[in-house]
């Protein structure tokens, strides 16, 4: 793995989102969470963001995300992520996030049908391999990096992940 | 009966290559695509494209039932598997036969027999083809030590099942043979579900030489000369040449005879390649395996033979006999192919998927490009990294290298990293020019020098 | 200076998942408003963005009553892989979530395609006997 030290890693998340937005070819992606607001638009006629952060959403609607996760048929949405809220809320405080070293398909087991390298609650050492990332037939084993306990799996087995995308949360020993 | 409508169960440059060959023979074409390849060059060139499934190969190109169903339902009477994917899985010709589709390749039992290394070696032995001294079945660490002692070190241990370079271990003495057994066997179990290994003498500086064959399925076999594919990285070929300039004529004849004898002995049908290891010091060659399909590097044989192998494949699958006799196959000049991969050689060959923002390939006399790429094309991250093959042909090896160098210099690709620059370094290296290379030369010499220069 | 806290990171992750889902599902727009954050994605320019609507409108009873996800009321159920259509639920059939709305043949095997949500079949995108490709619309469901 290579590191580019001076960049705040969280900026990568925005970069990845922008890349995905660009690739998708859609017109508008707008998100707002707390004081953070981001509007990506290819629509010249669309309104832009005001300088000040928008007011918190006044309408709180129950279970919004579950409805969004409905895919037309189970097999047709291979890359569909798990319910997003579930993913983000499962990283406890103090946990270290292990990210993908490069873009590729995330595999939790060494081969199809085999047991996963590690399950939630599993203890790992720094050199333990915890998953594979495959891009164009090149498999890269990802190591835990430090000793600890895996407390969350943040990507779906078999899904395409971007460089820097969170894969696991680990609580160090 | 000649094929009227052909299903192409592959992607990339080979799908496009097959579509064009079929169109030359007035065969209609239906190309299978995944969701990621809807807009591929082959899909645009073919009469029709059928989207099998999502981008992941396991749910599209690698599902034999989806492939054969789509072929049948789209009215195809022939199916070409290309290389890779399902091309050497016996289930594909089996399903084709059950559904009245002519498979462009060998019979399923021949694919199965040749696909099993132990059976393939037995077939080669029976046909009188030289084998590297070895042992077919190593089941325990004690076996490994005993057989290693008998064969003489260094020895190579590898999985009896599976292909490529996975699970290979080299041992220089009895202790290493035992340790190597444990490692390779565990890897073989993980990869193939079978820990049986086979062991053979390891030739440290070997060349990879292979013979292009075409069989009529009735014992008739014609060869189109040999190829030298010694520029490899991690057992993956990067540059292939035809002929093998390092091999003397008398050995070359024996090589061709051996390959033809093996193919004839199994009534081999359609295109195949018999691979050999060439021990330059001992001036001996040994059988490696038969690849029961058209290969990536078939164009270098086509260039020196002036013969279209894919068209011949389609004619044979349609029931015709071989269109040429051995006497009619005239080989001339020297051809070299470079595999252009979307890989970053400065980052340990990390694949480099993405969009091609500029694509300006060379053209001219003696230059051929087999590629499905164009400006603006997207290289998806799901499949292999090869984006094209640049092939040159000239009177001599030296002239071919010069032509290739000029062609590579004229080849501009932007937006992704490619191996074009590395290819120029390779072909201009003194060892390559003097033809002093072997299968580990690239890693041990050129890439090592590169690393040294960078440090 | 962009400040990206955990909440923002979670929102980005959610937005990416929504983008995937939208593309996979063939939807034209997705809007989610909730405690975790607000999201709006639109495929085509000119689609009104509820998040940039004046706050007054957002608190109006009409807006509050509108469904959280403005998924198209008519939803296409598409083929999960290539196959020959052998059966389609007739137009007018009311189906529950998970009920079969189509069957596809792959060689000698028949595969059921299930409704992703309950609804009424209002149209067919294919005919029995057609070769449906991956993502081909099989039936339309009206929520």
Secondary-structure map:
The complex is a heterotrimer of chains A (173), B (455) and C (143).
Chain A: H1 9-24, E1 28-33, E2 36-41, H2 64-68, H3 84-89, E3 96-99, E4 104-107, E5 123-124, E6 129-135, E7 138-143, E8 148-153, E9 160-161, E10 166-172
Antiparallel strand pairs in A: 1-2, 3-10, 4-6, 4-9, 5-8, 6-7, 8-10
Chain B: E1 5-8, H1 12-24, E2 28-34, H2 41-45, E3 48-53, H3 64-73, E4 78-80, H4 91-98, E5 102-103, H5 108-115, H6 117-126, E6 134-138, H7 141-151, E7 155-159, E8 169-171, H8 174-192, E9 197-201, E10 206-216, E11 221-233, E12 236-242, H9 249-265, E13 269-279, E14 284-291, H10 298-305, H11 309-317, E15 334-341, E16 343-344, E17 350-351, E18 354-355, E19 358-360, E20 367-371, E21 378-379, E22 386-394, H12 397-409, E23 412-414, H13 420-428, H14 430-433, H15 441-454
Chain C: H1 6-25, E1 29-34, E2 37-42, H2 55-59, H3 61-65, E3 74-78, E4 83-88, E5 94-95, E6 100-106, E7 109-114, E8 119-124, E9 131-132, E10 137-142
Antiparallel strand pairs in C: 1-2, 3-10, 4-6, 4-9, 5-8, 6-7, 8-10
Catalytic activity (chain B): N(6)-biotinyl-L-lysyl-[protein] + hydrogencarbonate + ATP = N(6)-carboxybiotinyl-L-lysyl-[protein] + ADP + phosphate + H(+)
Keywords (chain B): ATP-binding, Ligase, Nucleotide-binding
Domain ATP-grasp (chain B): 121-318
């Amino acid at each position: 793995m290579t590191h580019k030290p001076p960049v705040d890693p969280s900026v990568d998340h925005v970069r990845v989102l922008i890349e995905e937005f660009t690739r998708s070819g859609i017109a508008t992606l707008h998100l707002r969470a707390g004081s953070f607001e981001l509007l990506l638009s290819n629509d010249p006629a669309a309104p832009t963001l005001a300088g000040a952060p928008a007011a918190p959403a006044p309408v709180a609607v129950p279970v919004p995300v579950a409805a969004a996760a409905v895919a037309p048929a189970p097999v047709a949405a291979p890359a569909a992520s798990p319910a997003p809220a579930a993913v983000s809320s499962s990283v406890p405080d103090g946990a270290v996030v292990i990210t993908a070293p490069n873009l590729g398909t995330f595999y939790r087991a060494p081969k199809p049908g085999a047991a996963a390298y590690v399950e939630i609650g599993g203890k790992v050492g720094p050199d333990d391999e915890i998953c594979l990332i495959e891009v164009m037939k090149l498999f890269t084993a990802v190591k835990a990096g430090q000793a600890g306990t895996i407390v969350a799996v943040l990507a779906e087995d078999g899904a395409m992940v971007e460089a820097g995308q969170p894969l696991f949360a680990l609580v160090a020993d | 009966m000649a094929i009227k409508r052909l299903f192409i169960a592959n992607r990339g440059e080979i799908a496009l290559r097959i579509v064009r060959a079929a169109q030359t023979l007035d065969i209609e074409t239906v190309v299978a695509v995944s969701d990621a390849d809807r807009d591929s060059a082959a899909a645009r060139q073919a009469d029709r494209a059928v989207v099998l499934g999502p981008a992941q190969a396991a749910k599209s190109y690698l599902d034999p039932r989806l492939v054969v169903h789509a072929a049948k339902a789209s009215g195809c009477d022939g199916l070409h598997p290309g290389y890779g994917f399902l091309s050497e899985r016996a289930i594909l010709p089996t399903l084709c036969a059950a559904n009245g589709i002519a498979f462009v390749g060998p019979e399923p039992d021949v694919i199965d027999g040749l696909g099993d290394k132990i059976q393939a070696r037995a077939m080669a032995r029976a046909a009188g083809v030289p084998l590297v001294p070895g042992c077919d079945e190593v089941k325990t660490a004690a076996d490994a030590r005993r057989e290693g002692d008998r064969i003489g070190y260094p020895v190579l241990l590898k999985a009896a099942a599976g292909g490529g370079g996975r699970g290979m271990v080299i041992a220089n003495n009895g202790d290493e043979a035992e340790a190597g057994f444990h490692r390779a066997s565990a890897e073989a179990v993980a990869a193939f579900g079978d820990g049986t290994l086979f062991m053979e003498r390891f030739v440290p500086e070997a060349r990879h030489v292979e013979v292009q064959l075409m069989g009529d399925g009735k014992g008739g076999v014609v060869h189109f000369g040999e190829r030298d594919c010694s520029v490899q990285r991690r057992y993956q070929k990067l540059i292939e040449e035809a002929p093998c300039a390092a091999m003397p004529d008398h050995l070359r004849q024996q090589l061709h005879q051996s390959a033809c004898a093996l193919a004839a002995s199994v009534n081999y049908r359609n295109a195949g390649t018999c691979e050999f290891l060439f021990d330059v010091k001992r001036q001996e060659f040994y059988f490696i395996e038969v690849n029961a399909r058209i290969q990536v590097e078939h164009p270098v044989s086509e260039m020196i033979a002036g013969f279209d192998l894919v068209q011949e494949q389609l004619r044979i699958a349609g029931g015709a006999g071989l269109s040429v006799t051995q006497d009619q196959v005239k080989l001339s000049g020297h051809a070299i192919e470079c595999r252009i991969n979307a890989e970053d050689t400065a980052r340990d060959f990390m694949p480099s998927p993405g969009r091609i923002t500029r694509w300006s390939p060379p053209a001219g006399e003696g230059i051929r490009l087999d590629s499905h790429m164009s400006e603006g094309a997207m290289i998806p991250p799901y499949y292999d990294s090869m984006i094209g093959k640049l092939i040159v042909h000239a009177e001599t090896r030296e002239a071919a290298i010069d032509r290739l160098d000029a062609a590579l210099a004229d080849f501009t690709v932007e937006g992704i990293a490619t191996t074009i620059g590395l290819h120029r370094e390779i072909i201009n290296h003194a060892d390559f020019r003097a033809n002093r290379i072997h299968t580990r030369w690239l890693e041990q010499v050129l890439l090592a020098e590169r690393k040294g220069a960078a440090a | 200076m962009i400040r990206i806290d955990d909440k923002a990171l979670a929102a980005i992750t959610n937005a990416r998942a929504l983008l995937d889902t939208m593309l996979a599902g063939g939807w034209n727009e997705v809007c989610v408003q909730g405690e975790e954050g607000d999201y709006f994605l639109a495929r085509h320019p000119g689609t009104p963005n509820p998040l940039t609507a004046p706050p007054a409108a957002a608190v109006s009873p009409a807006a509050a009553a509108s469904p959280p996800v403005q998924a198209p009321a008519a939803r296409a159920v598409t083929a999960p892989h290539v196959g020959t259509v052998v059966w389609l639920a007739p137009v007018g059939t009311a189906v529950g979530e998970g009920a079969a709305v189509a069957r596809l043949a792959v060689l000698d095997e028949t595969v059921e395609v299930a409704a992703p949500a309950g609804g009424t079949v209002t149209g067919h995108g294919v005919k029995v006997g057609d070769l449906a490709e991956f993502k081909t619309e099989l039936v339309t469901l009206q929520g």
